[in-house]
Design goal:
heterodimer; A: alpha+beta; Ubiquitin-like (UB roll); five-stranded mixed beta sheet; two-stranded antiparallel ribbon; about 30% strand; B: alpha+beta; four-stranded mixed beta sheet; four-stranded antiparallel beta sheet; globular
Chain lengths: ~80, ~160
């Protein structure tokens, strides 16, 4: 079992892949360390959100992802 | 009648609006908006393709919640909200929102409300290809200002 990180929008290009499996459990500091400095820098932006287990976190720094959960990295959106 | 969907294939706005009209005999007004991929042949490097990506666990649930909020706020009796995902060509419809209400104001405002939220508060990411390069489209400041018009705080001032 592991935690799956999904890169959305421009973050997918930066990551060079759609998703990545990491050993769980994973918290905010662990996530920043695992994704590399460039994506970690983007994640610090207040307009970049994180979802865990299908729910958007109101405070992303309180992330606690368990084995088997999916984390989505959500940059600013542009629909319509 | 409530029809909220993500479409991987072609979107037919005329059929969607006709379907809503037929399904809501008690409505006194139908309003609609169709967003499409601009054909900008005059640009030095015109848009050759547009791609919309989404995040399955959030995008449709978010649209459904938006539809429920619009339904309650504007007293709708019918709502269609269709949004394309995947690759689109210039001229293709991207989004269609159509609403039915007893009176025109609710229908018109509900379309505006849904579109402002779909533009800058729904889980979509859009990029366009010009020549052989893809560019991500960033939300415009105007999109956020449009969204702010509907916030409760702003309305109380």
């Amino acid at each position: 079992m592991s935690v799956r990180i999904v890169f959305l929008g421009p973050l997918r290009d930066l990551a060079g892949e759609d998703s990545r499996e990491l050993a769980g459990p994973l918290d905010w500091d662990g996530l920043l360390a695992a994704v590399g400095p460039q994506i970690a820098g983007r994640l610090q932006n207040e307009r970049v959100h994180i979802a865990c287990g299908g729910k958007v976190l109101s405070d992303k720094t309180l992330l606690t992802a368990q084995d088997g959960e999916e984390i989505a990295l959500l940059p600013p959106v542009s629909g319509g | 009648m409530r029809d909220i969907r993500l479409l991987r294939g072609a979107l037919d706005p005329a059929a969607a609006i006709a379907g809503l009209t037929d399904a809501t005999p008690s409505a006194g007004g139908i309003a609609s908006f169709v967003g499409k991929v601009r054909v900008d042949d005059e640009a030095q490097e015109p848009v050759a393709a547009l791609e919309l990506s989404h995040y399955e666990p959030l995008t449709l649930p978010g649209m459904t919640a938006l539809g429920e909020a619009a339904w309650a706020r504007f007293g709708l009796c019918g709502l269609v909200m269709l949004h394309r995902i995947g690759q689109l060509a210039p001229g293709d419809p991207i989004v269609c929102v159509a609403t039915a209400a007893r009176h025109r104001r609710g229908a018109i405002l509900a379309v505006d409300y849904c579109m402002d939220h779909l533009k800058s508060a729904a889980w979509f990411w859009k990029r366009e290809r010009r020549g052989d390069r893809w560019h991500w489209i960033e939300p415009r400041a105007q999109d956020h200002e449009d969204l702010d018009r509907w916030s409760e705080k702003k309305r109380l001032i």
